[in-house]
Design a protein that fits this description.
56% helix; Rossmann fold; 5 strands; 217 residues; binds thymidine-5'-phosphate; 8 helices; 12% strand; alpha/beta
């Protein structure tokens, strides 16, 4: 059963490593707040205190072996807490929720990237989210090598960043495939230009949906 939260606006940012989604999502939050919108910015994994512990396990503690199913379930455990504790309450208060990564990441990384069973992911994810889908997903698409280089400049590589190029190529192709399957929700932005040019494109996508939401209130 799809969980329908009638209020609020749910926007997610996705993309391969180093696509710059956090910079862009934080900037759009600031602009919306400056205009008086009630906005929260959050992340997966790690949007709750349980999630921060799970994030450390998933990304930093690479010496701990993880099976594919265990990896999926940890991302979904993070999501279960996040949806219930942060996302749904904020939507019910009529807020705009902007989230760096959500369930599309599990399909792209664990499904396409690791080759995990999509049906398994779907079943668990539906149970965890109650079918709650974003109104808009901004997919920032970047060439994998460029993205990994950019991500590498910002600190020590984590479990995901250390996976090989082939894995990351599959993740990127997966994201693009999902965008073709869900063209109304997932909007692709090519990260070829400078930060400001990319921001212009992000801004247009976000404001289109915010304006529509405002009119429907
Ligand atoms: P980020 O904060 O840089 O986006 O790092 C989160 C990492 O976790 C990134 O490599 C993508 C990965 N991830 C998954 O593999 N599956 C998921 O479901 C989510 C939410 C993230």
């Amino acid at each position: 059963m799809a969980q329908k939260v009638e209020k609020g606006l749910f926007i997610t940012f996705e993309g391969p490593e180093g696509c710059g989604k956090s910079t862009q999502s934080r900037r759009i939050c600031e602009e919306l707040r400056a205009e008086g919108y009630d906005v929260i910015h959050t992340v997966e994994p790690g949007g709750t205190s349980l999630g921060q512990n799970i994030r450390a396990l998933l990304l930093e503690k690479e010496s701990i072996e993880l099976s594919r199913k265990a990896e999926i379930l940890l991302f979904e455990t993070d999501r279960a807490q996040h949806v219930e504790q942060i996302i749904v309450p904020a939507l019910l208060e009529g807020k705009i929720v902007i989230c760096d990564r959500y369930n599309t990441a599990t399909f792209a990384y664990q499904g396409y990237g690791l080759g995990a069973d999509m049906e398994f992911i779907k079943k668990i994810d539906d149970a965890v989210t109650g079918g709650l889908e974003p109104h808009l997903t901004v997919l920032m698409d970047i060439d994998v090598e460029t993205g990994l280089k950019r991500a590498g400049n910002t600190g020590v590589a984590d479990r995901m960043e250390k996976r090989d190029l082939k894995f990351h190529e599959k993740v990127r192709a997966g994201y693009l495939d999902l965008a073709e399957k869900y063209p109304k929700r997932i909007r692709v932005i090519k990260v070829n230009d400078g930060i400001d040019e990319v921001y212009g494109l992000v801004r247009k996508q976000v404001y289109d949906i915010v304006e529509r939401y405002k009119r429907s209130e």
